[in-house]
Amino acid sequence: MVTLVVTIGKGSQDLYSQKLAEKLDVPKIYSAIYQRNAELFNIPFLCRSAVKVTWDDWRFIRMLNRENSVIHLPNHHLGRYGVFLRVPYIITVHDLIRYFDLKGHGTFIHRPNLRDKLYLSLDYKGVKKAARIIAVSQTTKDDLIKHLGIPEERISVVYEGVDHQLFKPTSRRFTERRFTDYPYLLFVGSEHPRKNFAGLLKAFSRLKSERRFKNLKLVKVGKAGGSEAEFRKHTLQVINELEISADIIFTDYVAEEELPVYYSNAKCFILPSFYEGFGFPPLEAMACGCPVIVSNRSSLPEIAGEAAIQVGPNDIEGIATAIRGVLTYQELRKSLINKGFKRAARFTWEHTAEQTLQVYCEVTEDLRARVKEPKQTIFNRGPDCPKKSDVSY
Fold this sequence. Notes:
Layout: E1 2-7, H1 12-23, E2 28-31, H2 33-38, H3 48-65, E3 70-73, H4 79-82, E4 89-93, H5 97-102, H6 114-129, E5 132-135, H7 138-148, E6 155-157, H8 177-180, E7 184-188, H9 197-208, E8 217-221, H10 231-242, E9 248-252, H11 259-265, E10 268-271, H12 280-287, E11 292-295, H13 300-304, E12 309-311, H14 316-328, H15 330-345, H16 349-370
Parallel strand pairs: 1-2, 1-3, 3-4, 4-5, 5-6, 7-8, 7-10, 8-9, 10-11, 11-12
Helix pairs in contact: 9-10, 9-14, 12-15
């Protein structure tokens, strides 16, 4: 039997656990502990919040250790608890972004302070200790092997899904004038350095120098990022330097059920990231009939395939040229839309849940084989294990 920890929150990693919870008939523990931790990056060791969170951490660990089952931790930042678990556990790794910041391989989000370094080190120690690791892309699996030295056979790739009941073309229109009067490009995500929003702004600025694009806007959906760094301040500096402030629209957080309206009405969606462990927005955009441009880095080529235009994230003129092509050539636009529908249809939460259940079964069978008492409750099968399925991506 496997118990799934479901994290309460609005982030992409929370979404993953919540969608799995809807599809899997297994015991579940609901907790807001990950959302709370995500809000506490860059705080000092000795402060009231740090002391309180330590007490909450130990209560969470004790609760998990009382479970008479294998635990599924749905993201790698819960690895810090796995280090202290006596029960076996499975952990999902979405990316190694914070690991790269921790090891000084670049600044993908923010360089961690002393407290963050301790907790992040525990996260990846917990990843290494897991009975099985679920990686959300082959790229993430390769990173785990290369950077953490984890044996390939302990890692299962299970792609995340798209909610096709929600993400589909919609005829709904915006009521706000700023969205209805002008054509717009769309970016969905934070303003972390890894997202390369600054690169998109520079490419957009080049387009705005052409008379035919004088009415074009760039809509940015999503919060700037956590309070650990002044992400929005840096974005505004770039915008002011480029003198395009009148053409950038910030919406900040948008509820998931409203996102299809933004995708469906956009002329093009662009995600020029330096690093993504998976990346929901390109697939969501495709499912809504929006042409997509992505960078040719990390998992984006793997996820988007030939259904998106791929460009180098440092190639500002290349990004501008790709956008210009989508806006100008209708045949290219139609081709991307048709390919996008087919590509997005391959990624479903039903597939994700089915393959996750296969991992559960493999882990419990393996653990049962290792103990002398095969009927121990912790290793009971639980739900019926599905037959192996070959899902083509």
